[in-house]
Design a protein that fits this description.
39% of the residues lie in helices and 17% in strands. It has helices at 13-25, 63-73, 87-90, 94-115, 149-168, 190-206, 228-239, 257-266, 315-320, 329-347, and strands at 4-8, 29-34, 53-57, 77-80, 120-126, 171-177, 180-181, 214-216, 222-223, 226-227, 248-249, 255-256, 273-275, 282-285, 288-293. The strands form four sheets. It has a seven-stranded parallel sheet, sandwiched between helices. It has a four-stranded mixed sheet with strand order 8-15-14-13. Strands 7-10 form a two-stranded parallel ribbon. Helix 4 (94-115) packs parallel to helix 5 (149-168), helix 6 (190-206) runs parallel beside helix 8 (257-266) and helix 8 crosses helix 10. The radius of gyration is 21 Å and the shape is globular. 43% of the residues are buried. The protein binds NADPH dihydro-nicotinamide-adenine-dinucleotide phosphate (NDP) and guanosine-5'-diphosphate. The site of guanosine-5'-diphosphate has 17 residues, from helix 3 and helix 6.
Length: 348
């Protein structure tokens, strides 16, 4: 009997890459959990045509569907990527964020404990859990002082995981993943918003039209961006360690939003100039404003810039794991811009 792996969030970024990784590197059956939407959203998985990959109904806001999936498939691994994953939306939907990101994890744990106690569970944690940054870079011991509803939900899930691991000996873990991106990143996240906007600007110039500026929020935030494809490889390795262990995962470097903007424009041959300050800051090229700022995209937790410097201390991951990054920020930005250009061209 082949082992069953349940992966949730397969229509999203990490879940879809994890399915590809598992199909390429194991002979397991992969059950991809999807929720019902009025218009199905399978663009990240529609190219996968392997008989070992099957979609199953699994809505994390419905405890019965969690129960049904676990009792029916008795998984050897449960990889939970499904979430309300956008920090910005977590102020608009705090309860839904908590239900899906925390309460559902409790249901998964409880159900695994009763029906598949040997199953290995990975739940997606986040550098957002650290919240108020006390020191840079952040390691596994950095305190958690969440500053938004998303971070609270991930911290709560972490506590449930810890309790079930310690009380019931479940192999259940949650690593602290720093921001990771790819051409499949959700469109509202800052990197993809930039690369999508740059692709539109490229096509506007190509068609001799005036480009629309990209409107952003706080440019002072710093993030540790890696490639999502590197992250899923590592998560699978962590899930297969001899005993449960949790790691901070990132590149170990921190970048400003401008550090991502510059290579994105370079990819289409544009080298503009920054002028002005704060909300009046702009990125200008040959008289055209290509980036402007609007307070609309500032977050309620953007208290000041030093608190929002996210950098992973990957000492532990490097020591225990074979953590080799396959691409740098420039290659990542270029792959995202090129993908967005071809997506937009195919729409024409
Ligand atoms: P995405 O936003 O790309 O994917 C989220 C997935 O969750 C989608 O497939 C979505 O399905 C699914 N989902 C949402 N609500 C439900 C629900 N009620 N029931 C079932 N499925 C649901 O996220 P990422 O792939 O970027 O991130 C994966 C995980 O890692 C998330 O938990 C995220 O919070 C966490 N994380 C991500 C980081 C990053 O930088 N990417 C950093 C740190 C943590 P649908 O298509 O139907 O909306
Ligand atoms: P997050 O780190 O999970 O919140 O990932 P995001 O990509 O959404 O945001 C990364 C950082 O970019 C945050 O500090 C945001 O405040 C900042 N940022 C600046 N402008 C924007 C914007 O227009 N959209 C988003 N999503 N983030 C922005």
């Amino acid at each position: 009997m082949k082992k069953n792996v349940i992966v949730t969030g397969v229509t999203g970024q990490d879940g879809s890459y994890m399915v590809e990784h598992l199909l390429a590197n194991t002979d397991y059956n992969i059950l991809g959990g999807v929720r019902r939407l009025s218009v199905p959203n399978y663009k990240n998985i529609q190219h996968i045509k392997d008989k070992r990959f099957k979609l199953i109904d699994l809505d994390l806001s419905d405890v019965h569907s969690i129960h049904e999936a676990i009792t029916k498939y008795k998984p050897s691994y449960f990889i939970n990527f499904a979430a309300q994953s956008f920090v910005g939306a977590s102020w608009s939907f705090p309860q839904q964020t908590f239900d899906v990101n925390a309460t559902a994890v409790l249901h998964i744990l409880e159900c695994l404990r009763k029906h598949a106690p040997d199953c290995r569970l990975y739940n997606a944690g986040s550098s957002e859990e650290f919240g108020n940054i006390k020191y840079v870079p952040q390691d596994e011991k950095h305190p958690s002082e969440p500053r938004n509803p998303y971070a609270v939900s991930k911290c709560s899930a972490r506590q449930f995981i810890k309790i079930y691991r310690e009380s019931f000996n479940l192999f259940a873990i949650q690593c602290w993943l720093f921001n990771h991106e790819s051409p499949r990143r959700g469109i509202e996240f800052v990197t993809r918003k930039i690369t999508n906007g740059v692709a539109k600007i490229h096509l506007a110039y190509k068609n001799k039209k005036k480009p629309e500026p990209i409107t952003l929020g706080n440019l002072n935030a710093q993030r540790d961006w890696t490639d999502a494809r590197d992250c899923v490889r590592l998560i699978w390795d962590i899930l297969n360690l001899r005993s449960p262990n949790e790691y901070v995962i990132g590149s170990g470097s921190s970048y400003t939003i401008k550090d991502f903007i510059n290579p994105s424009f370079e990819c289409i041959g544009i080298k503009g100039k920054w002028r002005g300050e704060g909300v009046n800051e702009e990125y200008v090229y040959k008289g055209d404003v290509l980036i402007k700022i609007s307070p609309e995209f500032y977050r309620p937790d953007a208290i000041n810039s030093w608190q929002d410097i996210r950098t992973a201390d990957i000492t532990k991951a490097k020591k225990d794991l074979n953590w080799n990054l396959e691409s740098g920020l420039k290659e990542l930005a270029h792959s995202m811009v090129e993908n967005d250009i071809s997506l937009l061209q195919n729409l024409d």
